[in-house]
Every structure is written in C-alpha cells, then in structure tokens.
Write a structure and sequence with these properties.
This protein is of the alpha+beta class and 534 residues long. It is built from 15 helices and 21 strands. It has a seven-stranded antiparallel β-sheet with strand order 15-21-20-19-18-17-16, with no helix packed on it. A five-stranded mixed β-sheet has the order 5-6-1-7-8.
Length: 534
C-alpha cells in the first residue's frame, strides 16, 4: 500500500525569488536547501503576470497578504488602495518549475519516488511515496518531522500531510491542517474540506457551491448520476481518487541526465556567438561519452542561468541521432537567430548547461573528409535547420494505401525512418505522375474526344490543342465506399508544350441504378484536369 506525503510550498514563486536574490542556493544553481534564508527588504513582495485585462497578482508574500492582497487581484487596484510601495517581480513559471525540480532531487534523500506537483495541483509542491522508507527515520512521524525541520530551517515554508493516496494528501496539505491519515480513513478526513481540494476546475467548484455542494462530504452523500450528467466524469474520478477507490499514479522525477556538461563564467556572457561557441564546446565534452555508449543525441536542452536567478531553456529536437558538435552549434545558432530579443539576456548569463534529454543508437557510416559533419546531414539536416529557423513543424508527403490519386498521399510531421530494402511496390508505381496535383480536379469544357484521348479542350479560359497523348490508365474507385467512379487518365501535351494529367470520368450503367441516381451519375461524367507536369 502506498503512503504519500504531500508537501505544499506556500508562496513558492515568492520563496524562489527571495532565495535567488539572496544567492543562498549553494553553488548558485543546485536548488537544494542548505542554510537559512533572510531578506532585508521591508517592502511587500508580489509576483505579477500579464493577462488580456492587464497585470494580475499570481503570488504574494506574508506581508502583502497581511495587507489584504490576494492572488488574482489586478496589480493596478492593489497599488491604488495601498500607501506602501510594493516590490513587483514578473512571473517566471519556467524558473519556478526548474527550481522545484532541483528541490525534488534533494528530497530523494527520503525516498526514490518523488513527483513534482502538476498543473492540477498548482506546480508549487511535490509528493513523496514513503512506503518502505519511513522506517529509516524511525517511522512516518520521524520522517515527517525531519522533512519539516529541514525545510523550515532553510526558509522554505511548507505544509505537510500524509495519506494513502496523492489526492487525499494534497487536499489536507493545501486546504486542511495537514497531519496524518490512517489507511481507510480518507473519507472522514476529507468530509469537511472544500470541494476545490479535489483538484477540480475552479469554475466547477463555484457551480457546485451554487448548488449547495460546498464540502467534499456533500459530494460523498449526493447521487452520482446527476453529477456525472452535469459535470462529466472528471469530478467523480477526482472524488474516487481522493477516497482511494480509483488509482492515482504518480510520475516520479527522472534521475539526473547521464549526458550533460556545464560551464560557469566570472564575467557574464550574453552575445549570441559566445553562447553558441560555449554550447559547441560543451557538446565536444559530451560526445566522447555518447560514443562510448554507442548513442547519439536525439533531443538536447540548453539551459542559460541569468545573473538575477532567471533561467532560460532552449529545447532542440533532431531527426537523427548525432554526436557532431558543429551540427548542434549550427542548429542552436539558427534557433537563437529566430528568438532575437526574446532571449532577454538581461545583465548576462553566468552559467550555461547542455543536457542530452533523448538518445538513439548511431550506426557507423561513411561521411566526408572535412570532419565537420556537413555532408552527412542530408534531408534530415535540412528538416532540422528549417524547424529551428521557422519555429514550427515541417510536414512531408507520405504514401497512403489508396488507388485514388487525391487520397494516395497525406501530409505528416517530418520523421526520418529507415526504408526497407524490399518495400512492396504500390499500385501505379513507375507510371507518370504530375509534379503538381490539384486539390480538387477542375472540369474541362468544349472537349473534342471522339474516342480515346481528347484532341482539344478548354481549361481555365484557355484552349488547349493536344499534340501528343499517352494512356489510358484506368483507376477504379474504392468499391467499399462507392464514392469515386472509374476514371481513365491520359498524359497530354498541347501545342505550347504544356503537359497535363486529364481523365474521363465514366458514368455508372443506367440499368443498374434508379432513375434519379442515373441522372446524377450522368451529370458527373465528363473530362477533368487533375494535375500538371511542368
């Protein structure tokens, strides 16, 4: 049976900012608590984020809360009703998440299973599964006391609760008084807590309140069918998870990455060329370890630590595994070109770290003699460069099993795959296909075609006289759908040298169809232009 500790870090963005400004994290970036936190600034500290209606408070410290400020309040209103100056800092969710991950790594001293709060929990705490580990601290009470003592001594205000599942532990830590819940006592412990403690949408919680269902106990006693019809299964699922009737698995934090390197600077850097050169040298450090493991980098993460504690991350995904530092540096250079001023180096970066977050096997193959890896990239390198430069996914055409030309190819995200040596030939392979296939075939008018290919036709207000023609190639419709009649395709070249792909669409035999459908099929018969070869 799991035993879950929920650690809610009150005012986590504010705490992270104060610690970053005071420089109390030993080494500057490991995020683990080591000594007490102090802050001499007497101004209330708030964190604000921009929205469509203006800046709103997202976190406040204890002094700001004592003055009546609450998260969600407009910053302009808060300043208008207070005479005390506020220390306002912009919200940085990425830096908050990175610092929380480092704190979770520190918490692995208690148990290997540590998971940070997700979006539903507010991203301001973490879970620990201490089943089988609490005896190392004299039991659950001893482990909780040691954890609370270490967090409190290092200026990390937290509220702790222990229960048999994450939902119950979170509800007690965030909306209750914390403490211990014995196995099987979840219903009694949750009954008096607000329904928002179930990690549901605030709008759903407000709607439940208007119905008089303000406490979890009210939901436990209410009929379930009307609740499911009005609010969906998510509400009942969260309730059952908190009561321990449904599984609520955690996603433990991964171990530190095996392939990575970092470099610090006494004089902060901020120029793009310097960042790229540093990342290239870091990849040169990582490449031998990747080679020894027979692996290459499929995904990398560049982390830039600003002198004011803000952390910037750049994720780089590759089509093929690589160990080439020059290639990685060139792609990062393209990525930074696209970001431009959005990188916001501030007063500079004091540390740069490059981590390989995804790997894949690398097979030996012949490259060029220059040793810079440029000739070995091919189409995969082009796709990666376009992705960094354009900032969006690259699509390519892929074969789809259909005889109908407009359904024979589909657009899919670019992926480099190994092509089988004995790939079966698709229908129509080796036959001429146009370079440009029209999305929807266009009707040809004034067609002169006594029998066989057309001799002349009008298309897009231009008369085409056919000089040469090849065909026909008969393509039948998909019999299971019955939506596409049989077509006879011709490759025609007019007197001006234009080569077009045209077809005659046959009408279904009249004797096999009712009169109304016979007329409809007869109207669809005729000549159409479907593509152009040049």
């Amino acid at each position: 049976m799991p035993r879950i500790v929920s650690v809610w870090l009150e005012h986590w963005p504010v705490t992270r900012l104060r610690r970053a400004h005071a420089g109390l994290a030993q080494g500057g970036h490991d995020g683990s608590p080591h000594r007490a936190c102090s802050h001499d600034d007497a101004s209330p500290l708030v964190v604000a984020a921009g929205e469509a209606t203006g800046l709103r408070l997202t976190a406040v410290d204890a002094r700001a809360r004592a003055l009546g400020l609450r998260p969600g309040e407009p910053l302009a209103r808060a300043r208008a009703r207070l005479n005390t100056p506020l220390a306002v800092h912009p919200a940085d969710p990425e830096a908050d998440a990175a610092a929380l991950d480092r704190l979770c790594l520190w918490a692995k001293r208690y148990t290997p299973s540590v998971a940070a709060f997700g979006e539903a929990e507010g991203r301001d705490g973490f879970f620990l599964d201490v089943a089988g580990a609490s005896h190392l601290y004299g039991g659950e009470a001893g482990l909780m006391a040691d954890l609370a003592r270490r967090l409190g001594a290092n200026g990390l205000p937290a509220r702790l609760a222990l229960a048999g599942n994450p939902g119950c532990a979170f509800a007690l830590a965030r909306h209750g008084a914390g403490g211990f819940v014995p196995t099987g006592g979840e219903a009694d412990a949750l009954r008096g807590l607000p329904v928002l403690a179930l990690r549901i949408d605030p709008e759903v919680a407000a709607a439940l309140g208007r119905l008089g269902l303000r406490r979890i106990g009210d939901l436990v006693d209410a009929p379930r069918a009307p609740l499911v019809r009005r609010f969906g299964d998510a509400l009942i699922r969260r309730l059952d998870q908190a009561l321990g009737h449904r599984p609520d698995p955690l996603a433990p934090l991964d171990e530190p990455l095996a392939f990575g390197a970092a470099r610090g600077f006494l004089d902060p850097i901020g120029h793009q060329d310097t960042i790229v050169a540093t990342a290239t040298r870091l990849m040169e450090t990582v490449a031998p370890r990747l080679e020894a493991a027979g692996l290459g980098a499929r995904a990398l993460r560049l982390t830039l630590h600003r002198v004011d504690g803000v952390i910037r991350t750049l994720d780089l995904a590759l089509s093929e595994p690589t160990r080439c530092p020059v290639l990685v540096g060139r792609l990062l250079d393209l990525r930074l070109d696209r970001l431009g001023a959005a990188l916001d180096a501030g007063f500079g970066f004091e540390a740069v770290r490059l981590d390989v977050v995804g790997t894949g096997p690398v097979t030996a193959r012949q490259g060029d003699l220059s040793g810079d890896g440029r000739a070995a990239t091919g189409a995969a390198g082009l796709a990666d460069a376009l992705r960094q430069r354009l900032g969006r996914g690259i699509l390519r055409l892929a074969h789809h099993e259909s005889h109908v030309p407009e359904r024979a190819e589909t657009a899919e995200p670019w992926r480099v795959t190994r092509i089988a040596l004995h790939r079966p030939a698709r229908a129509g392979a080796g036959l001429p296909r146009p370079l440009v296939l029209l999305t929807r075939s266009e009707a040809a008018e004034d067609v002169l075609a006594p029998d066989g290919p057309p001799q002349r036709f009008r298309w897009r207000r231009r008369l085409h006289r056919v000089a040469h023609a090849e065909g026909p190639e008969r393509i039948a419709g998909e019999w299971w759908s019955g939506a596409t009649p049989t077509r006879d395709y011709y490759v025609v070249e007019d007197e001006a040298g234009r080569r077009l792909w045209v077809y005659r669409q046959a009408a279904s035999p009249a004797q096999t169809l009712p009169p109304a459908q016979t007329l409809a099929r007869a109207q669809t018969a005729g000549w159409f232009v479907h593509g152009m070869f040049a």
